[in-house]
Amino acid sequence: MPKIKGSCLCGEVTYYSTAEEPTMTAVCHCPDCQKQSGSAFSTNVLVPISSVVFEGDCRKQYVVKGASGEDVTRNFCGNCGSPLTTELPAFNDLAAVKAGTMVDSSWVKPDIQIWCDNTKPWSKIDEDIKSAGANPG
């Protein structure tokens, strides 16, 4: 059974990754992650794009210039709107799986946080997580 698997809120779209372990886990404070999550940051489990398998007919995607200025592809459920992954070709073709959509995310411990200049003062996370400095990309 895959370690990295999950679904949208309504269950119409499921996914799994054939990667046994993530390349890294990251908390991102960029403006785009704040908007797509509806919160102060997004917690992401990064795996190769080619390892992600989606099932279900409701998956939608769109490509947009990310906060870094690079193209990103956002996969989401067209029925309930849940964000599922963000494909980041500029980051060595990694997909950022949204940890909150995983069946079991209890093991997720972020390695790094990025876009820390955008951290909201009302939202604090573990200060032991390494900060990547200003805005990468």
UniProtKB/TrEMBL annotation:
GO molecular function: carbon-sulfur lyase activity; metal ion binding
Domain of life: Bacteria
UniProt keyword terms in alphabetical order: Lyase, Metal-binding, Zinc
CENP-V/GFA domain: residues covered: 4-123
InterPro entries the record matches: CENP-V/GFA (IPR006913), Mss4-like_sf (IPR011057)
Family indicated by similarity: Belongs to the Gfa family.
Protein name (record): CENP-V/GFA domain-containing protein
